[in-house]
């Protein structure tokens, strides 16, 4: 009766400890998954823009989702079982040597073979898993691009094309998965059959020991039971080893991305943070190539200066390098040679946080995020000591001509704008982008073709907001805000203090509107061409 009670207690304790062990590893696996994602996300947010130009979004999201999940799941499921099996193997080995050291040594014949096989198989699966995860990421890139561009896909009836592209990557992934399965089949065959052969040898040699009186028949039976338990433990470890090897392959892809070396002069995360900023921008003999187009020079010996509090305009044909200048001022890219200075200090010497506080930009295609209008306006300031009040948000909304349409919405400033602002029109998104730029109270304001993609009515509303910003920059309230405008339209640039005409990566003319018109050069030609186009449009409207 006592033995039965002991057995019941042992059974209960075994179940409790098993449940506790499983729950602990579930928590550990979840923590590993989250910490990997947080660490990877933190690293990604510090990488240079060129990295994102060269790396597909699907590859990055695959690392953040499927790869980190695979690593976390393996920790949760397999490390738990691995430790249990390891304890089981060690305990069984002790009992086996206590029964017969001769039979124990014989049982270890298969260990060196399985060890060498496991090492080869592990290296093979690890490299294969890397390729498999790459194919999976490529498939994710195709699906992500198609889903995010669904109106274009449907407009061109490109659904079958996107499906074939996605299926091609999935077929390659499946072929690699089959190759991995075949390799595992061979590994499992050897790692399972060899211990069975060893068991037959142990039975034969054990029989001789029993006949010679070295061990009893009961001890031989016990040893065989221990050997079976040992075989089960090694089989479990072998299976786990295969799964962990796949996890290591996925982890390698994550760590490669997490700890990649950054080219050029990396921006200092703890760089300079002066108390004041004058807003003086200078480019000295700058030469620039984009990482995605290393053989095409976009800026060639570029030099220009933006005095504090001045308004300058960059104009010229598309592809001349105007937006590239704006990107360098923001330190989105590194120049190949020359210097990009802010207040006589190279921009890469400043901390990213401080630099972003001094510069605001309104782009041709503003990016809004799937959150409320209020949070989009205060984007980047939320949760900081510079977070604007609701009154300040509404003030800049009125100045940027977007308070009217916001106030007509049921949720007003708490209205969700949808993915990339799909719930709003182009003009509405642009005006919110202007409010977002104003609320930061920047020392340098960048306007990159802010009205070129709008219809006439939206352009008028946005242009009014831009005119206000320029007037603010000129006024005392602007506190010396410098403005850099990239535009084609004459109405946007003619009142700038200095106009730079950019062609083929160089400044070919500079001066104010009147001076450049008198020179009858490239700027004058641009103005005449634009006026001719405007006359044609007006005549067509009259007709």
Automatic annotation (TrEMBL):
CDD domains: ABC_6TM_TAP (cd18572). It is a multi-pass membrane protein. Keywords: ATP-binding, Hydrolase, Membrane, Nucleotide-binding, Translocase, Transmembrane, Transmembrane helix, Transport. Residues 281-529 form the ABC transporter domain. Gene3D superfamilies: ABC transporter type 1, transmembrane domain (1.20.1560.10), P-loop containing nucleotide triphosphate hydrolases (3.40.50.300). It is found in: Endomembrane system. SUPFAM superfamilies: ABC transporter transmembrane region (SSF90123), P-loop containing nucleoside triphosphate hydrolases (SSF52540). The chain crosses the membrane at residues 86-117. GO terms for cellular component: endomembrane system; membrane. It holds the Pfam family ABC_tran. It comes from the Eukaryota. One of its GO terms (molecular function) is ATP hydrolysis activity. The keyword S-adenosyl-L-methionine does not apply. Residues 7-246 form the ABC transmembrane type-1 domain. SMART domains: AAA. Belongs to the ABC transporter superfamily. ABCB family. MHC peptide exporter (TC 3.A.1.209) subfamily. This is p-loop containing nucleoside triphosphate hydrolase protein. It comes from Fragilariopsis cylindrus CCMP1102.
């Amino acid at each position: 009766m006592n033995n039965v009670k002991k057995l019941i207690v042992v059974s209960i304790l075994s179940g409790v400890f098993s449940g506790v062990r499983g729950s602990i590893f579930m928590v550990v696996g979840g923590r590993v998954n989250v910490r990997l994602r947080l660490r990877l996300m933190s690293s990604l947010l510090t990488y240079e823009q060129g990295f994102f130009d060269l790396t597909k979004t699907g590859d990055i999201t695959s690392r953040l989702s499927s790869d980190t999940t695979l690593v976390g799941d393996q920790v949760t499921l397999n490390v738990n079982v691995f430790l249990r099996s390891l304890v089981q193997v060690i305990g069984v080995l002790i009992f086996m040597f206590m029964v017969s050291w001769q039979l124990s040594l014989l049982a270890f014949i298969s260990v060196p073979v399985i060890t060498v096989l496991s090492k080869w198989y592990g290296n093979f699966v690890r490299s294969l898993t890397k390729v498999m995860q790459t194919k999976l990421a490529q498939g994710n890139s195709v699906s992500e691009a198609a889903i995010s561009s669904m109106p274009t896909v449907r407009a061109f009836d490109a659904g079958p094309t996107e499906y074939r592209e996605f299926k091609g990557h999935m077929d390659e992934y499946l072929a690699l998965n089959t190759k991995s399965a075949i390799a595992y089949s061979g590994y499992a065959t050897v790692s399972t059959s060899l211990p069975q052969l060893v068991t037959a040898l142990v039975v034969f040699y054990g029989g001789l020991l029993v006949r010679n009186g070295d061990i009893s028949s009961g001890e031989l039976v016990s040893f065989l039971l221990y050997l079976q338990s040992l075989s089960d433990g090694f089989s479990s470890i072998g299976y786990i080893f295969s799964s962990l090897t796949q996890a290591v392959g996925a982890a390698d892809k994550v760590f490669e991305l997490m700890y990649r070396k950054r080219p050029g002069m990396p921006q200092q995360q703890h760089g300079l943070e002066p108390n004041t900023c004058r807003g003086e921008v200078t480019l000295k003999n700058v030469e620039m190539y984009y990482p995605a187009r290393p053989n095409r020079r976009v800026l060639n010996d570029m030099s220009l200066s933006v005095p504090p509090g001045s308004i300058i305009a960059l104009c010229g044909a598309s592809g001349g390098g105007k937006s590239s200048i704006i990107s360098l001022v923001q330190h989105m890219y590194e120049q190949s040679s020359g210097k990009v200075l802010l207040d006589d200090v190279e921009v890469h010497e400043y901390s990213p946080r401080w630099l972003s506080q001094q510069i605001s930009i309104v782009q041709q295609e503003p990016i809004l995020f799937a959150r409320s209008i209020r949070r989009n306006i205060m984007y980047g300031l939320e949760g900081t000591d510079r977070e604007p009040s609701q009154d300040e948000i509404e003030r800049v909304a009125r100045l940027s001509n977007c308070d009217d349409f916001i106030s007509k919405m049921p949720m007003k400033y708490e209205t969700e704008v949808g993915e990339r602002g799909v719930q709003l029109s182009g003009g509405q998104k642009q005006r919110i982008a202007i409010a977002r730029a104003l609320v930061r109270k920047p020392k340098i304001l960048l306007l990159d073709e802010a009205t070129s993609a709008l219809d006439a009515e939206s352009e008028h509303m946005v242009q009014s907001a831009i005119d206000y910003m320029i007037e603010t920059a000129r006024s005392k309230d602007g506190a010396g805000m410098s403005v850099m405008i990239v535009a084609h339209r004459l109405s946007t640039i003619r009142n700038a203090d200095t106009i730079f005409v950019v062609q083929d990566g160089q400044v070919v003319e500079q001066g104010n509107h009147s001076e450049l018109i008198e020179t009858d050069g490239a700027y004058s030609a641009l103005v005449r061409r634009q006026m001719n186009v405007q006359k044609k449009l007006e005549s067509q409207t009259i007709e």
